[in-house]
Fold:
Amino acid sequence: MAENTYHPIGQPQPYTNGFFDDVPVPTPGYALILTSSRDQDPPLVIESGSVPEKRRVRRGQYNQTTRVDVSAHEISFELELPSADSISRFCVKLSMSARVRDPYQIMTDHVTDVAAAVRSQLTPRLEDLACEYVPEQLQDLRRKILSSFSDVENLPCGISLSSISVQVRPDASHIRHQEQIQDLKNKEQYEIIRAGIADTLSQRYQDPRIQAFAEFAGGQITAEEAAMRMQKRSAKDFDESMRQYAEILNLVKQAQDMGLAPPEVLEEKTTQLLSSMVRTATANTPGLETGPAKKGLFSPPEDEDDDI
Structure:
C-alpha cells in the first residue's frame, strides 16, 4: 500500500557533561534527550523553548544525546476495513499532519515509522466504524470517519494529528462484482433490442422483396437476380417500391448499429443492390432509358452558354 512517512529519531551522539560544558540546545523543530548509562538518572528532554539550568543537567551523569524531530510532517497511508456484509471491504486512504508530542515516549518505544505507528493506533477504531456500513454507503462512512476525529487528535503513542482528510473506495472484488452485474445488464438490454430487430425482420420477411434482399445479402443470389425479383411489379409502383426500400435500408442501419453485420459488408451489398434495382427499374419504365445521349441519374449538370 502507498505510504508517506518519516523517521523521527536521530542517531545517538556522545555528550560530555563537564563543569564548563554548555547545556545542549536543540534547533527549532527538534528536541534533545539526554540519557545516562546509570539507571538512577532519568532521561532529560530538552526542547528549544525550555532549556534547563546547568545544575539540573549536572545532577545526572548524562553521556549521550538523541535528537527527535518534533516538527509537523504530512503523512498518509491506506488500510482495508471490513464492511457490514462480511464479504466486501473498504479501501481507506488517510492523509494528515503528524507531529511528535512526547519525544521521550517516541524514543523509548523505538518509533521509526510514524505512519505505521498512527495506522496501528487508528485501525481498531476505524474497523469498528466500517463494519456498520455496506459498500454502497461510501460517503456515509467517509463522513463518519471524519466526524470521529477532533481538530487535534492526541494519540496514546505520543503523536498528535491534525488536518485529517479521508478517501474511501470499495475493494477490487466489489468493483469486479459491480462490473459483472453491469455487463449482465448490458447483455440483457442488447438481447432485448436484438430480439426486437429480429421480430421486425421476421415480419417484413413476408414481403418477397425483403426475402430477396436477405438472400442477396447472404450471398445466395446475385444483385441482378435480387433486383429482378424485387421489380416484378409494374413501373407505376416504382415510387412505392423506393419507399419500401428506404425502410429496408433504415432497418439495415439498425442492424449495423447493433453489430449484426460488418458495416463494410452492408455498404457493399446495399450499393450493388441499389444499382441493380435502378437498372431494372429504368429498363422497365418507358422514358427512363439511359444511353449515350441521355444524362445519368446522378450525372452533374452541363454548363450552359452565357447569353451575349
About this structure: The chain is about 45% helix and 20% strand.
